[in-house]
Amino acid sequence: MRQILPLAQARQMPLLRRPTALLFLMAVAMPVAFATWSALLNNFVIEAAEFDGSDIGWLHTVREIPGFLAVGVIAIIMVMREQVLGVVALALLGVATAMTAWFPSLGGILTITMLSSIGFHYYETVNQSLQLQWLPKDSAPQMLGWLLAAGSGATLVAYVLVVLTWRAFDLNYNLVYMVSGGFTAIVAVIAYFAYPQFEAPNPQIKRMVLRRRYWLYYALQFMSGARRQIFVVFAGFMMVEKFGFEVHEVTGLFLINLIANMVFAPLLGRAVFRFGERSALIFEYVGLIGVFLAYGGVYYFGWGVILAATLYVVDHMFFALALALKTYFQKIADPGDIAPTAAVAFTINHIAAVFLPAALGYLWLVSPGGVFVLAAGMAGVSLALALLIPRHPVPGYETRLSNLVPAAAE
Fold first, then answer.
1. Which spans are transmembrane here (predicted)?
2. How far apart are the first and last CA of the chain?
3. CA 139 → CA 24, 127, 204, 269, 327, distances in Å?
């Protein structure tokens, strides 16, 4: 059996063997596969399988099904430690990404996307749980910002290589997917063998947890998932379909996003710590309303490619403030609820994601601008919910509607 080390003792280990080092290692590995897959995806599916708006909607619906089923993590951690599950899921993401270009048809792409998505969503579910268990509350916002920056830095290297070499060396999709996915899989193997199994001080409940006092967190997760799908599915697709962006141009846009994340993610983490989750989320949602309405203007009023590209970068930066949602839950949660609630929250986050991309794919065929106007409305609902977050949330005072009395068990 592999060594199990209490978290308090683990923090006395050499720096590169501590739990935070493992979090950083996985934070570097995951986006190399996932972000490279995303950067090439729109060009790949259009060139290899002649996807239209409906097809891309169905692809992302299939991709989000494992997210909807993330609650299954609760059953798996009954027989497998969270840390092990996270590493196995990371390896699956890497292997499936490496095989993406082997099946250049609608059915093949949907199948391999399902496998990579299982790896991605189960990794993200466990990773979020481990972050909130392993990071102290007083430093969590800043550390989450640095973890985002680390992931952006790793992906930056991958994107620079794609931009510089795609046309210069006439690269193909299979080679790029093999290299990026293979890297993630290799790092997952290293993460498994190089670190002991860390034991958090609060045993996690290994059953589904739904508590009334977490209702605002659930609602914000639901709206976040619905809103995010429109950006993930259609913002990049617009750049290829409407403006004819090639692979190196799309990757260049992603590259700008990464540099912005590296610079601003730690600052955003400090801002959440300084001003609180309520102010951070209000700022995010107000900004997203403006961005999505401007996206609609690109279609309704013919605003140009420069504005569309700028909106894409600004949009991506606003989403970095989602770390405030994690730390809001960390402040209101019972310590033993973190793992099961992370799984439940991931499922709630993906309820809309299962049907929304496919449904909006048909709307896209009729009115692309209408898709973004709808997203602005979703951001407005999120804003209304964010206004209910207290300035200093704690158990028993989870929303501004709560009384300052001990919370009920449910």
1. 21-46, 58-77, 84-100, 106-123, 144-169, 175-195, 215-240, 252-273, 280-300, 306-329, 341-365, 371-390
2. 37
3. 15, 17, 21, 9, 10
**CA angle 151-156-159, nearest 5°?**
125
**Which tokens is 260 given?**
């912005």
At 360, list the tokens.
Answer: 């909006």
The fold of 4-386 is Growth Hormone; Chain: A; (1.20.1250)
Contact 112, 96 (CB under 8 A): yes
- Lowest-pLDDT range of 119-123, 262-266, 287-291: 262-266
**SS3 of 281-311:** HHHHHHHHHHHHHHHHHHHHCCCCHHHHHHH
pLDDT digits (tens, 9 = 90+) for 310-346: 888 888 788 778 788 888 988 998 887 777 777 787 7
Alpha-carbon span 197 to 10, nearest angstrom: 10
Contact 234, 364 (CB under 8 A): yes
Tell me the three state secondary structure of residue 199: strand
CB 292 within 8 A of CB 311: no
Question: Which amino acid type is present at position 333?
Answer: A
Q: Which of 257, 274, 270, 252 is nearest to 315 (CA)?
A: 257
Q: Which amino acid is at 283?
A: F
Query: Using CA atoms, how far apart are residues 20 and 230, in angstroms rounded to an integer?
Result: 33
Phi, psi of 90 (to 5 degrees): -65, -40
- Residues 239, 307: Cα–Cα separation, whole Å: 11
Q: Which residues pair with 199 in a beta bridge?
A: 6
Do residues 31 and 196 touch, judged by C-beta distance below 8 A?
A: no
Does the global pTM surpass 0.90?
A: no
Nearest Cα residue to 253 out of 298, 315, 322, 182? 315
The residue ranges of every structural domain in the chain are 4-386
Instruction: Write the CA distances from 132 to 57, 60, 338, integer angstroms.
Output: 32, 28, 7
